[in-house]
Amino acid sequence: MIGGAVIWYKPEWKIVDLICTLAFSVIVMGTTIKMLRNVLEVLMESTPREVDATKVEKGILEMEEVVAIHELHIWAITVGKILLACHVKIRPEANADAVLDNVINYLKREYNISHVTIQIER
Length: 122
Prior knowledge:
The protein has 4 helices and 3 strands, in the order αααββαβ. It is an alpha+beta fold. It is rod-shaped and about 85 Å long. About 10% of the residues are buried. Belongs to the cation diffusion facilitator (CDF) transporter (TC 2.A.4) family. SLC30A subfamily.
């Protein structure tokens, strides 16, 4: 609209149309690149930037009944919806249900990961 108004007022300033188009293109590209990056991360099933897998693993290992953790996979199915799957080895005498609840609550509280699949091993 600005370019059209300028050209209407001064028809010899046709270059204003090109300048306005380039400025608008830069603005659109700037806002689209971030969204495109997020979409590609979801499609590639990469670990979300806001979750540090090493810290997640360390936090689970610090629980008293947990002996080991392996096959840890963290990915997003959409921006902000994170999933986790892993195997957790616990002590033979540990209450598996209690450990499972503790791990799920920890992941929800610390990382907002609500979709969790955990295989308990002894």
